[in-house]
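Journal club prep — side note

Before the paper discussion, L.F. wants everyone to see what a predicted structure for a comparable chain looks like in token form. Sequence:
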Amino acid sequence: MSEASSSSTHRSSAYLNALTQEIEKKLQRALASPSQRRNLLQELFADIALEVDDRARDIILSGEEGGICPAEDGIDSRLCFYDVLADHYVRIPESGQRILDLIVQLWSQLFVSHIFALLFHKWIFEVQLNNDEVLLRYSSALVQGATNVFWIDIQTNSRHFQSLFRYLLEEVALEPARLNKIPVQVQRDLFLVLSRFIFFYNSVDKLESFLKLFPVFPNAFLVGGSADFFVIEVADQLQKLKVEPVLLHYLSQIKVLQGMELRMTTSTRLKTCLYSFTSPGGPMYPTRAVRHAAWDALDFLFPVGQYPRHVISLFFRLLYPWCWPSSCWNFIMSWLKAVLHTLLRVVFSSWEKVRAEKNS
């Protein structure tokens, strides 16, 4: 039994070492070939972000003792190469040292921060770094790389890097022992990044704990508390979103902000942001679905004054005559659907009454 376990562990370790060597080779090629550098780094990033196939999964997981099992983390059943490599470099730090040296030499290149964040996001919190300057550089690169890969998920409306987000949220931001290993300024940057994407990765259940551990900012006396910083980041994020399904998801999640104690300036900022999505045309050019979702969120979070807002919006709609035909058509269709549903309810209700009388 122990021989079989030892054999499986050896196979898993050999496979991960082979992957590490391939990564080293591609980084060395990128370093030696400036003209092909960007393409090589992009290919490497795509490779380590790939989902592990069934054959490789069997080899890797067979050698893990209480190790990687994505189902236990609640992240669907997706397992990517960066997940297993990140754990491998924590267990055997020296195995990733050569990759780290090559990354440092390519530090300013596009996709390098992405690769660093995916491969070493656990390593940086588990390995003792005595040089404060190196720690600042690595932790700043981690936050920047994480931001970049989260935006890739936003643009593709996927959750490919959800395990990275959940690690940074649940195992770092909500765990002061790990969080305090990185400089205070990077801690602040990390919390701001997590604030922008917490709705996207469906982690609002951690919001209360997240806000309680929010670091103190030097300008807090001007901006407000943790809730104010969080809402400001969310409002800024909303205005950057261009993918309709993602924007609709944010607008549905944003209702959890109801009841938060915010400064008047923060509340006005959020209200203005939502209101900008309620009208057709520039600068946001929202679709009909987005406009309706924005109205729902606005009325839910700010019920006072909702009727005057709708009246004012109606008058502003007159400034967009090209939208009148579609608005009239949508109004007629909505009215017809409402009438039809009412008639069907009446018919079925009458039918149920007749059946009940017959049975009695």
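L.F.'s comment for the group: The chain is about 70% helix and 0% strand. Keep this in mind when we get to the figures.
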